[in-house]
Input
Amino acid sequence: MLGSSSTLVSLRRYNLVAGCLHLAQALAIVLLANGFSLPVRAAYMTGAPSRTVGHQTVVLFNLSFAWAIAAFFFLSALAHFGVAGPRWQSYQAQLLGGRNPYRWLEYSLSASIMIVLIAMLVGIDDIAALVALVGVNASMIGFGWMQERYEAPGAGLGPFWTGCIAGIVPWAAIAVYLIGPGARAHAPGFVYGIFFSLFVLFNCFAVNQWLQYKQVGKWRDYLLGERVYVTLSLVAKSLLAWQIFASTLASSAAH
Output
């Protein structure tokens, strides 16, 4: 079941508004933030594999949090302006078919940047670990696209459940570092706030798709679910950005 043409027009406006809000926040973060960054490292073996072999730790680069946050905002703004502008006809046709590939493409990039930032805040800074988290997170989003591509609402949920399993992996890895079994010190309070708030919001995306495909109540209209996706994306990105800003990026924060 799909909404009327007036609902599509309203959704176009909603995408434009969301794009403007994402863009404004990207610019605000870049202009107001300090130079806070964290190193991305690699630990290389210095000899043959053994229990006593040493490692040489190398800083590959420092990741600027302000620019990383701006990147996921810019990606979101580009996606919203794209579907409301030059890709509008294609976007409408996809929505009428009960899918939106543009959403999943943008999420695979922006949500993966978000996962990297959350992981680094708890101390995961190894390049291999971060690449793996990006890969698993992007795979989860790919399964979300497969659910829309190959299953009709009311039909099976195989790709959805596979995506849920993949989606647990990054959060489980981050939780280990957050809890810090065996460690004497633990992450500061604001990191716990970021972890739990974003964990809930990320899962709301899954709940939204489940409601769409189970045809629950108003979610029988695919366009309602699309509007919820737009809202969740804006809320999740804004919440992560400004929690990080308040804790580490404000110009008065310690470098």
The chain has one domain: 5-249.
